[in-house]
Design brief:
Blueprint lengths: L6 H9 L16 E2 L4 E5 L6 E14 L2 E12 L4 E16 L2 E17 L2 E5 L4 E11 L4 E15 L4 E15 L3 E16 L7 E21 L9 E23 L2 E16 L3 E4 L14 H9 L18 H11 L35 H9 L19 H12 L22 H13 L16 H23 L1 H4 L2
Antiparallel strand pairs: 1-2, 2-3, 3-4, 4-5, 5-6, 6-7, 6-8, 7-9, 8-9, 9-10, 10-11, 11-12, 12-13, 13-14, 13-15
Helix pairs in contact: 2-7, 3-4, 5-6, 5-7
Length: 487
């Protein structure tokens, strides 16, 4: 199966400046997939039937319009069932600032389901479907939510029988450099009508939750031989796991005879992708060995968030604003805002881009990183056209930057409140919301004191950034998947 791009990913790639994970969202029929297999469950016969096969998605973007075509070829050998389905969708995007709304409509639909000798057919005129979605981009993370409604009518035996499936669905998800998740919830109401024998009519309900998650994990691996030039190193592993859960309340049948009582139950299945493994560089730093934050600093150095080739890092020394900008950009895999070097590719008479800050020239070691975090809205200058790249960063400033990247500062209480730290009164007003949220999310420690105006050391900054990575990998994913699936 070819890899393809889902709607929300297309929007985030269009609007968002950071690198994004490519989650393969297999449409809106409630299925899950990996590189080669697609699976979904249907309820139109009065019992759940799991179908498996292939799905091909073609996506095109032109200006503010996205078109998609989904082609399904599925079967269940045990149930003697085969399904072919083609869906064509289009949507119009409306962008205002850092958010985009869209309206998605159905352009074409055709479905044929055969079970034994019985054929179920759906054509354009028998399927009504529409969806509305909003995407909101913060400096680092893209969040999206959507709702859709549909009514699909299967025609059976030349119209002597029909099955109408009413669907109400919603989705919610996010995309970040270390994880991406989307969870869809669908509620079905199924009505079977026999035009000849009304006594055979029945109705049922079903609910389905499908969750798609991509996570980038890191692991330090020791080398077994002693006689080797490096002790060990970090592995990055990217993997997508997909989970589908469903429940149903349907009539009971024996062959084609409807019995008293109801057929109720629930089940689930999952599909994973083959992991992609990347080995990181081996940092030269030696003065962090044996320290409590050793692994954090080695990880960041392996990603060049800290200097890769320096043997001396100075873990207890303070971190500058410019070096923190570099650490954020490289640890979050944010593309650099670099001026085109090849003058032949520049437009004729195009003026040379001037530095944003008067104290950060193009020859500064962190120039590209500072330009990048500024354009993304991750860090700001100190006023009067200055950034002060070599000024040390405080603990309050570092924490504020991380929560700003998430866009979560508004999660703090509105009225007077305390962060719970004994030095709460020393936290600057502009940082208080960010510190409160960071503590609530577990990104910073719940120690008695926060020391907001103390310069943050390189060791402390490394621990803070790795805590932030762990939050993106685990806690954020949990809220968008387990909290919904286990609700």
């Amino acid at each position: 199966m070819k890899k393809h791009i889902a709607f929300f990913l297309a929007l985030i790639l269009l609007l968002s400046p950071m690198e994004s994970f490519a989650i393969n969202i297999p449409g809106y029929e409630g299925g899950i997939q990996n590189e080669s297999i697609y699976k979904e469950v249907i309820f139109v016969t009065g019992e759940p039937i799991v179908l498996e096969g292939t799905l091909e998605i073609k996506t095109k973007m032109k200006n503010d319009t996205i078109t998609e075509q989904y082609t399904y070829k599925l079967s269940n050998i045990a149930k003697d069932a085969k399904l072919s389905r083609t869906i064509k969708l289009s949507e119009k995007l409306d962008t205002k600032g850092n958010q985009t709304t869209s309206k998605k409509t159905l352009d074409g639909y055709k479905e044929t389901l055969t079970i034994g000798k019985k054929k179920y057919e759906v054509k354009d005129e028998n399927y009504q479907w529409n969806q509305g979605t909003v995407v909101h981009n913060t400096p680092l993370v893209g969040y999206h939510a959507g709702d859709w409604s549909a009514r699909k009518t299967y025609i059976v035996d030349k119209g002597k029988e029909s099955i109408t499936v009413q669907t109400v669905g919603n989705l919610v998800g996010y995309d970040s450099p270390w994880s991406a998740t989307e969870t869809q919830t669908l509620d079905y109401t199924i009505n079977y009508e026999n035009k000849i024998d009304k006594k055979r009519n029945w109705e049922g309900t079903a609910s389905l939750e499908a969750s798609y998650n991509m996570t980038k994990d890191y692991e330090y691996v020791d080398n077994v031989p002693n006689q080797i030039s490096f002790k060990g190193g970090f592995l990055l592993t990217e993997k997508q796991d997909n989970v589908l859960k469903y429940s149903y309340d349907l009539p009971r049948f024996k062959e084609e005879t409807m019995l008293n009582g109801r057929n109720t139950g629930k089940d689930s299945f999952s599909i994973d992708t083959n992991p992609i493994i990347t080995r990181l560089n081996i940092p030269a730093v030696r003065d962090v060995l044996g320290l409590p934050n050793e692994k954090d600093m080695l990880l960041l150095a392996s990603m060049e968030a800290l200097p890769l080739g320096s043997t001396y890092l100075g873990p207890s020394s303070s971190m500058s604003r410019g070096d923190f900008a570099r650490a954020i950009v490289n640890s979050m895999n944010i593309p650099l805002e670099k001026e085109e070097e090849n003058t032949k590719k520049k437009k004729k008479n195009q003026e040379e881009k001037l530095p944003t800050y008067i104290d950060v020239g193009k020859n500064h070691r962190n120039y590209d990183y500072i330009e990048t975090v500024t354009k993304r809205g991750i860090m700001e200058g100190v006023g009067r056209g200055k950034f002060e790249p070599d000024k040390y960063l405080t603990r309050a400033e570092a924490t504020t930057i991380l929560i700003r990247m998430l866009g979560f500062q508004n999660l703090a209480p509105i009225k007077n409140y305390s962060t719970g730290y004994k030095d709460n009164g020393s936290i600057p007003a502009w940082a208080k919301d960010h510190v409160y949220v960071a503590k609530m999310l577990g990104i910073i420690e719940k120690d008695p004191y926060f020391y907001p105006n103390t310069d943050i050391t390189k060791a402390e900054a490394s621990e803070l950034i790795v805590n932030f990575i762990n939050y993106l990998q685990k806690s954020l994913k949990y809220d968008y998947r387990e909290n919904i699936l286990n609700n």
